[in-house]
Design a protein that fits this description.
Blueprint: H1 10-21, H2 26-33, H3 37-46, H4 61-71, H5 76-80, H6 82-93, H7 98-108, H8 117-125, H9 127-132, H10 169-172, E1 179-185, E2 195-201, E3 207-212, H11 217-228, E4 238-241, H12 251-257, E5 260-263, H13 273-282, H14 297-308, H15 320-333
Parallel strand pairs: 1-4, 4-5
Antiparallel strand pairs: 1-2, 2-3
Helix pairs in contact: 1-4, 2-3, 7-8, 11-12
Length: 334
């Protein structure tokens, strides 16, 4: 047997064709070529020429070589299908992530056009994708892929009853609606003190953006109250924050909306992962160098609408808008 695997070449494929034509078994062909029998099995199965006319069906060395060469085109399935490559580029420009594109293709177009998200990333960062600048369309537009880092810890004294460890299990496992996460999105100081509160409903991943003139806690809580008070009580039961001082007036939500507030442990923003994930999506359209004073409330709402109308893998590729809308319809029907 050969030391180390090497792809079959045209000469070996001609040898396989000649031996198979004389009625030799796969074991005999493998022994003659000093190849493993599985290599021969795969070769005969994968590189069969299929034709409408039975007389032209079978294993032919030049046709087998052509099919094998096509599979080894750099970029794989996407590079071999210009229509698929164009579709992926179009969806990336519509702010879909590679995982969302892969999931949608698998769900709606079947196995013929299904690709995994890793294949899409390899295409984006490969020669063809780089020549089109597709990396700029990714959720986090980096020239190369690198790991992320947690943000710095923030301090705030939280009563024991409001720590995340006291949060009921139904909130952690997302078994019911009405449990939110909140965070503050800060922008460059030279543009003033304006910021955004991002709110995410844990089960549906529905996102709300609220503009704040400053980081004062009373104003931040007032904005949250304004945006959530129109929801049915069952859809505004609790909210989870980090320990930033902007959330110090959390008791306001308990008095005004009967919402219980919970807080992450120090240096553990991942405990409110839904809103952290949503913030990353929002930053695609509102990066840290955005001047909020130049944006109208309608433009900010358009960002939230775009996020809420994008399919999510965690929702089986439904949109947050659809999931929360279905729950509101059920509540109204009771």
């Amino acid at each position: 047997m050969m030391n180390g695997y090497q792809h079959l070449g045209l000469d070996e494929r001609r040898h396989i064709y000649q031996l198979a034509a004389t009625g030799r078994s796969v074991h005999q062909i493998a022994a003659s070529l000093q190849r493993h029998r599985s290599t021969i099995y795969r070769e005969l199965k994968r590189n069969q020429h299929l034709d409408d006319e039975p007389v032209f069906r079978g294993y032919f060395p030049t046709a087998a070589q052509t099919m094998a060469d096509r599979r080894r085109v750099r970029g794989g399935k996407i590079a071999r299908k210009p229509e698929l490559a164009a579709y992926i580029a179009d969806r990336l420009s519509a702010a879909w992530s590679p995982e969302q594109i892969a999931g949608y293709l698998r769900r709606h177009r079947g196995n013929r056009e299904a690709v995994c998200h890793e294949t899409i990333y390899q295409f984006v960062y490969g020669p063809d994708g780089r020549s089109q600048g597709l990396w700029r369309l990714l959720p986090v537009a980096r020239r190369s892929r690198r790991q992320r880092y947690a943000r710095k810890p923030r301090g705030l004294h939280i009563p024991l009853a409001n720590t995340i460890g006291k949060r009921p299990s139904e909130i952690g496992n997302r078994s019911s609606f009405g449990h939110w996460e909140g965070d503050l999105m800060i922008f460059r100081l030279e543009y003033g003190k304006a910021n955004l509160t991002s709110l995410v409903e844990r089960r549906s991943r529905f996102t709300i953006l609220a503009r704040n003139p400053s980081r004062h806690s009373a104003g931040v809580m007032s904005g949250i109250q304004h945006h959530l008070h129109m929801l049915p009580p069952s859809l505004r039961q609790s909210i989870t924050f980090d320990r930033g001082t902007e959330f110090a007036a959390f008791v306001t939500l308990q008095k005004k909306l009967a919402m219980t507030s919970y807080f992450c442990l120090p240096s553990a923003p991942w405990q409110k992962g839904s809103v952290e994930n949503s913030n990353g999506r929002i930053r695609r359209f509102l990066p840290s160098d955005t001047d909020l004073a130049l944006l109208s409330d309608k433009e900010i709402q358009a960002v939230a609408d775009r996020i809420n109308s994008t399919p999510r893998k965690c929702l089986n590729y439904r949109t947050p808008h659809d999931v929360l809308g279905e729950q509101i319809t059920l509540l109204n029907a009771r």
